[in-house]
Design a protein that fits this description.
The complex is a heterodimer. Chain A is an alpha+beta fold. Chain A contains 23 helices and ten strands. In chain A, the strands form two sheets. In chain A, strands 2, 3, 4, 5, 6 and 7 form a six-stranded antiparallel beta sheet that branches. A four-stranded antiparallel beta sheet of chain A has the order 1-10-9-8. The longest helix of chain B is centred in the last third of the chain and has 33 residues. By secondary structure, chain B is mostly helical. Classes of the chains: A alpha+beta, B mainly alpha. The interface between A and B is large, with 58 and 51 residues.
Chain lengths: 661, 153
């Protein structure tokens, strides 16, 4: 009964969303206030119903209701509680339902917190949000119904893919979806602006926080996915240029560009047409990502079911939304005029440069990801585009951008002073060169370019700190004045500096681990040991273990450094009997920012095993950097200007009404 | 328990260990280093987008051994790669060769960047013209202005 309630809620949500996608926009066209005002309650209802249906599916997982086909196929009574919860979205139907829950969540946020939004804009935004909702609800109900029943109900489920039985599944997809789907809001704002033919800096002031919010979650979502792959796949790679990774990286690149161009619209009322296009493209790339992952065009751990009809339906949605919005853009964008002139060397110029590089990078990743698919479709022959291609093309496209990054925040609007900025960045330049030199002297192997990579990271971090100090007039005035200025700097300034510095921190980690990481693998018996980077791992024993839903052979290793015992590492070979699926469980010890990473290969009858150990210097900086970026975004979002900066239209109207009376 | 251990053993034996195994490693460290570098550029054909250096599939192991055999036989890096491509096709290369069929791919960063630069150039020129046009008064505006000025006189 409760399951049917979930199914019913989903269908009711579709009906309401159909209304939401027509009524408010019609109201906005004919200027009917009552019709426009239906948008907010419809959005809230949609969220409640979709949320209810998601909660009911999760309930099915919690009580192991195998009469639901979806639960039977992806769960097991012995599965730990946390994986019963996360298993709800560890499959195609459930993850699509979560996609829709998050979509309607963002719609509900706009409905609830958009009180001061101009009514017409709000009606159009929520209406467009409704279009997306209708498309995906129909997709879910007609091709991927999570509430399909089985009769008679099987006694036991088929268990969840063991690679997904990890805390990573609880964290990574929700965060990533918050990012992906968050860009639907900026998309809806862009379409609303095109429908209305009106785009002013108030519009940008509304769009920017949403872009920022989506970007923050996409950043941290990708980062968590990267850490998950790092420890789960057993050899410590953290970025693979896998098509599925690229699918999330493209909206990130475009979203980062959007974030920066929206600043120009808000402050200088320039780049408006471009920003609208970028908002459309960013969400289009999110949709493309959803298509690539969900359609089974690419098979990987991310695609749970390969069903060609689903792929065709998502492709249809993709074509309608991308084609439709671009056509609308082509038709209506001339109604949005360009404004705000600026010199090439200026804050605006710096942000344009940022957009140029990020767009080129997005295009390269896009073509690199789709080229094999297109090539096979056209010629029938197969071709691979892998990490060597992306490393080769992305490095020249990103290094100039990263080098230019510290300049941007120092630039003044309209006309900047490059020479003056150079002088202010001399400390950062000096420290970067010193860092490169130190690294060069201290290491005797590793790639020649590695010290330069370290220098770039240091340059970005120190450059960002320099900007804050410069704004606070540090060392130029007395200390108390500097402190006063530091206190009064807008949070957005701190946010930007932290975001930029975080990028530098990630860069440092990436360069260090790529250039100076070491690897050792040997076949050893208990009692023997292997060594890398000065650490000795002594093989103590093989310990067989039996757990609720898996069995494993655990290798017990004692880690010592210069004769001192530090840790015990326990890499394992695991088997999930329900699916007959073996996995490799790595074991990691963290020392400062570096990690010692071990994994276990074949275990022979006499206990001999192939043992792998990797020294990953400063590897955690990669993820700490993204956390800094996330915090930077949050600081910006908390800026007073974004919270209360929008003029309160309601009051203004009331005042003008009184005046009229 | 025994049954599970038995299953575990069966699977362990069926599954080769992760990536390069100690028994594959060449004694000459220089050759081995070259083998590793070549391996990262060759695709494991039965896996998802993994190089043979990272993959634990049997085919990847065979290819790794093949690469090392060719290197030991005295082939240079290009010859080894050609040897593999001749047998498995270009699909095996993670970095596709530059040619007519991949021109679009390899030129994409330059085209994207160049296109962006061109667009900036033209937009800038147009906005300069717009600005110039905005600085000039239209005939009507001029007439209106004259009228106002005349009134004041």
């Amino acid at each position: 009964m409760i399951v049917e309630l979930g199914h019913y809620a989903l269908i009711l949500a579709l009906v309401l969303t159909l209304l939401q996608s027509v009524v408010p926009i019609w109201g906005a066209r004919i200027g009917d206030q009552r019709l426009m005002e239906t948008a907010a309650p419809l959005s809230l209802m949609q969220f409640l119903l979709v949320g209810l249906s998601f909660a009911i599916l999760m309930h099915g997982y919690l009580v192991s209701d195998f009469s639901i086909k979806n639960v039977y196929e992806n769960s097991h009574t012995d599965k730990p509680l946390i994986f019963k919860i996360s298993g709800t979205w560890g499959n195609h139907e459930g993850s699509m339902l979560m996609w829709i829950v998050i979509l309607s969540f963002f719609g509900a946020l706009v409905a609830a917190f958009g009180r001061y939004l101009p009514l017409k804009l709000k009606a159009n935004v929520l209406g467009v949000q409704g279009w997306i909702g209708v498309a995906f609800l129909m997709f879910l109900i007609f091709t991927s119904n999570p509430f399909e029943r089985l009769s008679p109900a099987p006694a036991e489920g088929q268990d969840l893919n063991p690679l997904l039985q990890d805390i990573g599944l609880a964290i990574h997809p929700p965060l990533l979806y918050l990012g992906y789907v968050g860009f639907s809001i900026t998309f809806s704002f862009a379409i609303a602006a095109l429908l209305e033919g009106k785009l002013d800096s108030a519009w940008a002031r509304w769009v920017r926080p949403w872009a920022l919010l989506a970007w923050m979650f996409l950043t941290i979502g990708i980062s968590m996915g990267s850490y998950w792959a790092y420890y789960e796949l057993g050899w410590g790679g953290w970025w693979f240029w896998d098509p599925v990774e690229n699918a999330s990286f493209m909206p990130w690149l475009a979203g980062t560009a959007l974030l920066h161009s929206a600043i120009v619209v808000e402050k200088r009322n320039a780049l408006r047409v471009w920003t609208v296009l970028l908002a459309i493209l960013t969400f289009s790339l999110s949709l493309l990502g959803t298509f690539l992952v969900r359609s089974g065009v690419l098979t990987s751990v991310h695609s749970f079911a390969t069903d060609p009809t689903r792929g065709i339906v998502i492709l249809g949605i993709l074509i309608i939304f991308i084609g439709g919005s671009l056509a609308l853009f082509a038709w209506r964008s001339s109604s949005l005029t360009q404004g705000g002139l600026f010199a090439p060397v200026s804050r605006e110029g710096a942000l344009v440069l940022n957009n140029l590089f990020l767009s080129a990078a997005t295009a390269t990743v896009l073509i690199g990801t789709l080229y094999p698919l297109a090539y096979e479709a056209v010629t029938g022959a197969k071709i691979s585009v892998g990490p060597p291609f992306f490393n080769l093309t992305m490095v020249p496209l990103t290094i100039p951008l990263l080098l230019a990054m510290p300049f941007g925040p120092f630039m003044t609007w309209k006309r900047g002073d490059l020479l003056g900025v150079m002088q202010r960045l001399l400390t950062a330049l000096g420290l970067a060169i010193a860092a490169a030199f130190t690294v060069y002297v201290m290491t005797n192997d590793g790639p020649v370019l590695a010290p330069l990579g370290i220098a770039v990271g240091v340059w970005m971090i120190v450059g960002s700190i320099s900007e804050i100090l410069w704004r606070a007039k540090a060392f130029q005035t007395d200390f108390s004045e500097t402190l006063r200025r530091l206190r009064h700097l807008p949070r957005a300034s701190y946010g930007a500096a932290l975001g930029h510095a975080g990028m530098g921190v990630t860069m440092l980690g990436a360069v260090a681990v790529t250039a100076y990481g070491t690897e050792v693998f040997e076949e050893i018996k208990p009692g023997q040991s292997i060594e890398t980077a000065g650490y000795t791992m002594t093989f103590k024993a093989i310990r067989p273990e039996r757990h609720a839903n898996y069995v494993q052979d655990v290798g017990v290793f004692e880690v010592s450094y210069k004769g001192q015992v530090l840790d015990e590492l326990t890499p394992a070979k695991r088997l999930y009997p329900a699916r007959q699926f073996p996995t490799t469980e790595s074991s990691i010890a963290t020392y400062g920012f570096s990690q010692l990473y071990m994994s276990l290969g074949d275990v022979q009858k006499d206990g001999t095993a192939v043992v792998r150990a990797y020294w990953k210097p400063y590897v955690t900086l990669i993820w700490y950097g993204t956390i800094l970026m996330f915090i930077g975004g949050a600081l910006s979002l908390a800026d007073r200007r974004l919270r209360i900066g929008v003029p309160k239209r309601g009051q203004a109207n009331a005042a003008s009404l009184q005046a009229a009376e | 328990m025994r049954f599970f251990i038995f299953l575990l053993m069966v699977f362990m034996l069926a599954l080769p260990a992760k990536a390069v195994n100690p028994d594959e490693v060449l004694t000459d460290p220089v050759l081995e280093q070259r083998a590793r570098e070549i391996s990262t550029k060759l695709r494991c054909l039965v896996c998802q987008n993994q190089s043979i250096d990272d993959s634990d599939a049997q085919l990847a192991k065979d290819l790794r051994v093949l690469v090392r055999e060719r290197l030991t036989a005295g082939d240079d890096d290009t010859a080894v790669v050609d040897f593999v491509v001749d047998r498995y096709g270009e699909y095996v290369l993670l970095k596709p060769r530059l040619g007519g069929h991949t021109l679009l791919l390899w030129s994409s960063p330059f085209v994207a960047f160049g296109f962006g630069l061109l667009a900036l150039f033209f937009l800038r020129r147009r906005s300069d013209e717009d600005a110039a046009a905005a600085a000039q008064l239209s005939n009507e505006e001029e007439a209106a202005l004259n009228q106002i000025l005349n009134k004041r006189d």
